[in-house]
Predict the structure.
Amino acid sequence: MRTVRTRLTALYVALFAVSGAALLAVTYLLVRGSVAQQRYTGAGSPTGSGARNHSYEGGKPGPPGSGTDIESYRHALDLRRLAVQGTLALAVMTLVAVVVGWLVAGRILRPLRTITRTAQNISAGNLHARLDLPGPDDELKQLGDTFDALLERLDRSFRSQRQFVANASHELRTPLARQRTQIQVALTDPEPTLATLRTAHEQALTANRRQETVIEALLALARSEGGLDRSEPFDLAATAHRTVAARRTLAAEHAVRLDTDLVPAAGTGDPRLVERLVVNLVDNALRHNRPGGHVTLRTRSTDDGTAVLSIANSGPTVAPEDLDRLFQPFQRLGPARTRRDDGLGLGLSIVQAIATAHGATLDVRPRPAGGLTVTVTFPPVGERAPGGSHR
């Protein structure tokens, strides 16, 4: 099998051999030319001996046995010896280059072998393993650091997935157990009446509706995290207007004032997911509020074409260190933050997933008087970042 180490060694040896042969040839030609020049200069010199002037005219060797002929033979012998010895030296150094090239290639490729072994040994159960490659900050070190960053993201993703599955199982198990209990109570009633059966059926339907709500929220979250299947133009102002119109009654039930300042703001993406994002933000602001509170929804478009949606609501005070928990599925900050018990803990998780799918930036800040201010900034039309973020 021709490994990368073998190919690198062969390339290194080939380059060394070609360079060495070229250097030997150039040296040979230079020495031969220098010898010929010396012989020619010696033949034409006025101070030369009479025998040399007689036997070496015009730089040509004299007759056999003359001094010039012997000197020419000696120079030719020296040139031949230079060629033979240089070739032998080049052959020996080429063998040395094979050994040195093999060792150097192995040393250079050692980080790649480390990465390969780590990748082969990694499974879903030991994603915590890291390379931590030593050495200078070169291309191989950057490759190792990139691999470690990939493992870190995978580790977080797997841990989040396991936690999500556990929480989702719990959320689905609770209404199922409640529904089963209600049915069992109705079945064990020795003297059931129409009223008791109706009550049992209504309670079972309530539990069933909660199951349906949880499943729909999970599907929305999964679809958001899966990315966009299509990209169409949308207007944040129109989407927000429809959402607010459908939530006026709910706001009145909560005794919360719902104000709007909607300026056309164009964007591109999945209009259904964007509408779900706005609905979740408004529902979250209404649910986690107080009687006599307010919700203010604004849309605008900046000079560079970005569409901005912001919503501010009154409500309980949220500590800055608790903001990250709001974006984790099924996480709630406690019963004191909400007056209703119909929240699933998925609202802001879905909002974050939708924002990430659209390359939008999600900015969440606690208000000093209580409540939150959430700002979603979509990229300009025709541009979409590889992923959004929240801060």
Residues 67-121 form the longest helix (55 residues). Residues 4-121 form one domain. Confidence is low (pLDDT under 50) at residues 44-63, 335-341.
